[in-house]
Specification:
Length: 340
Amino acid sequence: MKAALIGLPFSGKSTVFQALTGIESGKKEETVGTIKVPDERIDKLAEIYNPKKKTYSEFVLSDYTVPPSKESALPAKVKNLIQKSDLLIMTLRNFDSLMTSDPSDPAAEYKKIKEDMILTDFVVIEKRLEREMKEKKNPPELKVLQRLRDLFENGEFPAADTVSPEEMELIANYNFLSLKKMIVLVNQPEGEQTVPPELAKQLEADGISCFCVSAPLEVELSELAPEEQLEFLKDYGLSESASVRFIKSAYAALGLISFLTAGSDEVRAWPIKNGTPALYAAGKIHSDIQRGFIRAEVVHFDDFIKYGSEAECKKAAAYRLEGKEYVVKDGDIINFRFNV
């Protein structure tokens, strides 16, 4: 699964990228980093099993170094690059930048990017509908496109229930920007946690979640040793950094959950789409396990911690044998039985 950072010049998105991935954006058009998703469950299981290795879930984040466009908020190259992304992270500036004399106005930045995305999608639909008038083919997605065009004409982002999952499959190849999952990240001065009122009003109307970070502070924090990070956060009355909280929310926004495997060799979180059956979760580990699937031995992490061990979980009947159609839950600890 892939997330992408977008934003206007001087929004600090490259610093955000460094805070989240530990990588500095280079001169390439696209810089890609892997984000490990912090998971206290993995840490707790590692304390119990003392494995040789512990592995967290991951997702990919991209940042783009492309010359700004005079014609639009987002350069055409960036729009092309983000088409295959599953989540867009819109970075807005709410700090005074040494790089520009323009005052910060995150609400105006949001509106500008939103209007550009809507216009981009609107033009695609208009061209398709014009072609349909000539060809008279009446494709199955026609009604969906007409409905979206009406929304775009009113300057609206489609609500979550505007397009059904079945309709999304019909229009998947269009890669509409305004239909992508989106989170707004407000880059603010250190210690400022309040979303600007005008921006908050717009985001509430559009149903988009928002986080506040101070990207330079998060970069400094990421460079500290774990124990120093904890001391720093305690001084602010926090248990985890803004970037950690944001990463967890971005992971959920991607529609991902984690099932767990645990043993003396490795404790690991496996990312899967929410709603994945056990058969396909098995394939996440290895295709042979999916092919030879027999049963899944399942205990939820909360039950495992409650009873303290595999043996006690089995005594309490907390372990279950599930078939291939069982829908895996976030935090399930699974041992797959298989025969190839």
